[in-house]
Write a structure and sequence with these properties.
50% of the residues lie in helices and 17% in strands. The chain has two helices and four strands, in the order H-E-H-E-E-E. The strands form two sheets. The chain has a two-stranded antiparallel sheet. It has a two-stranded antiparallel sheet with strand order 3-4. Strand 3 and strand 4 form a beta hairpin. The longest helix has 47 residues. It is elongated.
């Protein structure tokens, strides 16, 4: 009986710690994706002499980023504007991450 209680206490401490680590790693992966999109947008601005670009012009088999893999059901902005902060919403349905170019 004591063993069951000890295992329960260990699980009660370990599960929240695991959830925090998972959330942190998701946020870092989303931030990295936002950084890659921002860098691709910067390259697009330079090559095309514009200050806005649709995400569809950045991601695709023949574009700057071949595949954009989602991490936690996040939503990236459909349009990027030069010099404007990239805000990614809906990370695991709860969090928002911003990237300033």
């Amino acid at each position: 009986m004591i063993v069951v209680v000890i295992i329960g206490l260990l699980a009660a401490m370990a599960i929240p710690a695991f959830q925090r680590v998972r959330a942190s790693s998701q946020d870092k992966a989303v931030l990295n994706n936002a950084r890659q999109l921002s860098n691709a947008a910067d390259q697009y601005y330079t090559e095309n002499g514009v200050s806005t670009v649709a995400q569809s012009d950045l991601v695709g088999a023949t574009n700057y980023i071949r595949v954009q893999n989602g991490v936690a059901n996040e939503i990236y902005p459909p349009v990027f504007t030069q010099g404007v902060t990239v805000t990614v919403t809906g990370i695991a349905g709860l969090r928002t991450v911003t990237y300033s170019p």
